[in-house]
Structures are given as C-alpha cells and as structure tokens.
C-alpha cells in the first residue's frame, strides 16, 4: 500500500530527505512544506509556513498523510511532535521534553554531568556581569556559547580574552542570537579533531549512521565567522570501528537510557557533535535532528529504504531493521551567497545546474533557492553540491568539478572541504 509522506522544511537537508525517500517503492504522494526550487521536482511544495502547526496538522489529516518528518530544530523545540501526537498523527522526531537537549545547552551540559557523558568542564550564567567576571578570572582559551537554539552559529571558540569578552557582549548585550542568549554556557576549549555522529533512535535502541565531518567556518582553513555549515564528507577515514563503538557506549546509549528513565524516551535522530581528544570522544553539543549539511552526504550513501527506517523508529522496532550503506565516500560542498552569514543579496539567477548535475556521481541539492521559470537565490546557503566516489579524493574531485559549472553573482564556497582528511 502506498504511503503519503510530509517533510517539513526548506533547506538542503530537506531536499536530500525528499530525494532519498522519493526512491521508496511504497511512496504515494510526497509533500514538502514549504520546500524550495529543487524539491518541487520530486514532491509537491506546500504554501504552509513551517511554524503553522495547526495548518500542517489540518493538511496531514485532510490528505491522509501516513508519516511526517521534521527537519528544522526550532519546530522540535516548540513541541510540534507533541502536537501531532495529540491528534493521533505519526511523526518522526523527539518530543518537546526530549528536544531540550538541543534547545538548551545548559540543560544538555547538566544532563551530561548526571549521565556521566564525557564533555568539557563548564559553567552556566544568566547574568552578563557574573559571566564577564568569570571569563576575566578564567582567561583564554575558552568557549562561549549561547544556551538556546542559534541555527548552529551560537558557539564562539575564543583564543584571546578580548575575543571572549567580545563574544559574551554580542550574545548577552547586543542579543545577536535574540532569546538564545538569555543564558550562556562557558566551557573549556578542547583540543582535537571534530566529528559528527548521527543515530536513528526509537526510544529504546539506536542505530548509528556513518561518521562525518562538518566545516563550520565561512572561509578556508577554519577562518572567519561560524556558519550553519559550509560542507561535509562521510565517512571520516581515520575514525576506527573501536572508536565508533566507544561513542555508542559512552555517548548515544546513555542519552537513550537517561531519557527513558526520566519518562520521555528519545525517538528520532540524535546527533552529537564530538571532539576526539587524547582522553577519548568528548561531546561539544547535542542536536535532535538531521544535520545540515551532513544529511546531504549521508543520503548519498544510504542504501536502505529511508521510509522503512523512519517507520521502524516511530513504531519502536528499529532493532528489526538492517541498515546498509554504500561503500566509498560522499562529499558535500555548500555554495553560499556572498556576504553570508551576514547580509547578502537575494533573487540572483543561477546558471549551470543542468550541466553540473550530469557529471558522474553528482547530485545537487537546493537550499536557498526559488523557482519561477528560472532558479534564483533566496537564502544564505544556496546549494549543496554532492558527489560520491570509491575514495574521498575521487568524490572530492567530482564535487569541485561540478562547482565549476555553477554561477551566480558573488557566489562563495570553501575550497578545502575534505582536504585535511586527505593529508592525515
């Protein structure tokens, strides 16, 4: 029997999920709210604001939607899963209570302390004056984080005391992250390579995805402002099976057991951002949804029907699913608007997409685009150019070859995605 599915969101992550789930032989009608210029080629874009929970519920009921998949973290933190469940609707994602582990970094750090999940020593402050005094006493290097959701841009690694004071002022006084800066977490700056780990969860058991590595800074070499992510690759070649098992045992499973004990089992996608230190894996932060742009790489390598996996998570039978991944590597290079993550132009025509998409192993996912006879830019992160290959080098070469075909005014991309892994 064919199943109607609704995906909520408009970014590259949602386009990748639409692309993958559209391949299921059980898919009936596929909807995305609101979608973008790329998703409309695979699904029906809906003119429904993602924050209009009532409108989404009404649509799901009226159109026999079997399953809803939530992309953006803000909707999960606002309790969209609870609202759908109260109406008897099937939805993939954690409840409001479980989503706290991303919505509040202070909650996450306290939870990690209680669950003995390895993380950096920290302090939490709601007073700017007390936070400033602590930073001045502690000195640098140090990390200053907005506690609330900040679209992946709320963490400030500070090498100097001046940078720490400036970051604290921006978060708590200038309110650049709005209410996310009501509270700050100040923690030790850990040394080591960063790794992203995602896990499908059904409230009782987890199934780890591949390792991946994000590139957050806007410029090559880790320079410039933090962004939502300028590119990823998967899997990370130097991460061993033994290390992955340790991450599952010391990080992922304690979250599931701890939340189940508290009475709000975690179902959905759990995504810990990790620093691999000399002492082992340490958690930088937890996310409660598919990462962006990690998802764009993952979906290129996933062999198993995504609908089968998500359905099993919702039904609490994930242990019955054997998840398979393609051999080789995937890479995602994000093309952004000039000026991102600050001010940038919109509605700029994009050329070269058709030619780029015809290259071997290449799939282009849209993010900040709109289409009305011609594809134009509509956001900061515009496109995710992905490629797969037997080796990371082959995948990387294919992705950057595709980027050469694409053009819009002032477009910007990092030229070093995956380069560091090739040198290790």
Provide an overview of this structure.
It is a single chain. The chain is an alpha+beta fold and 424 residues long. Among the domains are: 3-95, Rossmann fold; 122-187, ATP-grasp fold, A domain (Dna Ligase, domain 1, 2-Layer Sandwich), CATH 3.30.1490.20. Helix content is 32%, strand content 28%. The strands form 5 sheets. Strands 16-15-10-11-14-17-21-18 form an 8-stranded antiparallel β-sheet, with helices on both faces.
Feature tags:
424 residues; alpha+beta; Dna Ligase, domain 1; 14 helices; 32% helix; globular
User: Could you list the spans in which at least 5 consecutive residues all have pLDDT below 50?
Assistant: none
Number of strands: 21
Q: Please compute the radius of gyration using only Cα atoms.
A: 21 Å
Mean pLDDT: 96
Overall form: globular
Helix run count: 14
Helix content: 25-40%
> Which CATH architecture of the domain at 3-95 would you pick?
3-Layer(aba) Sandwich
CATH level 1 name of the domain at 3-95: Alpha Beta
Summarize the structure.
This protein has helices spanning 12-21, 53-62, 73-77, 80-86, 96-103, 105-115, 128-138, 161-172, 241-262, 294-301, 306-314, 353-357, 392-403, 419-423, and strands at 3-9, 27-34, 44-45, 65-70, 91-92, 122-125, 142-146, 155-158, 184-187, 193-202, 206-214, 217-219, 223-226, 231-234, 267-277, 280-287, 329-336, 362-366, 369-371, 375-377, 381-389.
């Amino acid at each position: 029997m064919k199943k109607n599915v609704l995906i909520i969101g408009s970014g590259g992550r949602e386009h990748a999920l639409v692309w993958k789930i559209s391949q299921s032989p059980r898919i009936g009608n596929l909807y995305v709210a609101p979608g973008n210029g790329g998703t409309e080629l695979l699904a029906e874009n809906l003119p429904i604001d993602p924050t209009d929970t009532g409108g989404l519920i009404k649509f799901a009921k009226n159109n026999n939607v079997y399953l809803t998949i939530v992309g953006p973290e803000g909707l999960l933190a606002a309790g969209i899963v609870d609202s759908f469940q109260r109406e008897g609707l099937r939805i993939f994602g954690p409840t409001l209570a479980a989503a706290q582990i991303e919505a509040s970094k202070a909650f996450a750090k306290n939870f990690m302390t209680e669950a003995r999940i390895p993380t950096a020593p920290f302090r939490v402050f709601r007073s700017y004056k007390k936070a400033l005094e602590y930073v001045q006493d502690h000195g640098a290097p140090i990390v200053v984080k907005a506690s609330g959701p900040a679209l992946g841009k709320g963490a400030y690694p500070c090498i100097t005391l001046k940078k720490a004071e400036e970051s604290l002022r921006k978060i708590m006084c200038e309110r650049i992250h709005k209410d996310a800066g009501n509270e700050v977490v100040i923690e030790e700056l850990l040394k080591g390579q960063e790794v992203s780990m995602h896990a499908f969860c059904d409230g009782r058991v987890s199934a780890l995805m591949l390792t991946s590595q994000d590139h957050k800074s806007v410029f090559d070499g880790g320079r410039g402002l933090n962004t939502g992510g300028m590119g990823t690759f998967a899997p990370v070649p130097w991460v061993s099976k033994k290390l992955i098992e340790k991450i599952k045992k010391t990080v992922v499973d304690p979250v599931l057991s701890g939340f189940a004990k508290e009475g709000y089992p975690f179902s959905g996608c759990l995504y810990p951002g990790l620093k691999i230190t000399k002492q082992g894996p340490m958690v930088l932060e937890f996310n409660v949804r598919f990462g962006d742009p990690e998802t764009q790489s993952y979906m290129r390598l996933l062999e198993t029907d995504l609908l089968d996996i998500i359905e099993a998570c919702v039904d609490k039978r994930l242990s019955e699913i054997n998840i398979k991944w393609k051999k080789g590597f995937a890479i995602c290079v994000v093309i952004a608007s000039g000026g991102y993550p600050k001010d940038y132009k919109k509605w700029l025509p994009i050329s070269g997409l058709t030619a780029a998409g015809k290259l071997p192993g290449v799939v282009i996912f849209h993010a900040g685009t709109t289409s009305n006879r011609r594809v134009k830019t509509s956001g900061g992160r515009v496109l995710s150019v992905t490629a797969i290959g037997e080796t990371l080098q082959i995948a990387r070469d294919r992705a950057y070859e595709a980027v050469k075909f694409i053009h819009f005014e002032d477009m910007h991309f990092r030229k070093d995605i995956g380069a560091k892994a090739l040198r290790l």
